Amino acid sequence: MTKSGNEMTQTSNLLCPCGSGKNYQACCEIYHQGQAAPDPESLMRSRYTAFSGSMWQYLLDTWHSSTRPASLGNDDPVEWFKLEVHESSADSDKGKVSFSATFRQAGKWMQLRENSRFLHENGRWYYVDGDAEWVELDPGRNDPCPCGSGKKFKKCCG
Asked: What distance in Å separates the CA atoms of residue 113 and residue 100, rounded to the nearest whole number?
C-alpha cells in the first residue's frame, strides 16, 4: 500500500487507502490538492493516506504550527494496510479522532492506536497531537490476516 504522491495520482480510480470505500479521486485526493477538510475525521483519513503515499509536505502543511516537526521522512519503509476509525467528534474549534492503523515495518506487524487532537483555525483543521500506543501484532497461522483481506494469515501474508 506504500505509494508515492505521483503513484497515488496515477491510481486515482482505485479505492482510497483511508478505508472510506470511495475511490481516491472522490475522497482524499481533493484534500491533497488543497481543499480544506470539512472535519477532523476527513483530515485524519487524508493524513493516513498521505502517510501511505509518503506525501510528507501535505503532512507538514496539515500539522498545527505549535507541534509541527521541522521535517518528516522515514528511513525504514512502512507498508500501511488498514485504517479503522473508532470515534470522531468536533466541537467548535476542537476535534478528536480515535483510530487504529495497521502496518508492517522491518518485517513486523504493528498497530498504531491513537486518540488524536485537532484544532480549527483560519477555516482549516490541523492535527495537533495524540495519545499513541504502538502494539506489535503476532498473528497466528489461522488468525485473520492483519492486512484486512479477510483471509487467514497463512493463506495471505504469512
From this structure: 4
Whether the pLDDT of residue 11 is over 70: the answer is no
pLDDT at 14: 86
Note the pLDDT tens digit of each residue in 98-125: 999 999 999 999 999 999 999 999 999 9
- Between CA 46 and CA 56, with CA 50 as vertex, the angle to 5 degrees is 130
* Cell numbers at 95, concatenated: 476535534
Report the alpha-carbon angle 2-81-62, nearest 5. Answer: 65
Residue 117, beta-bridge partner list: 96, 129
Dihedral sign computed on CA atoms, order 126, 128, 129, 130: negative
CA distance 55 to 10: 14
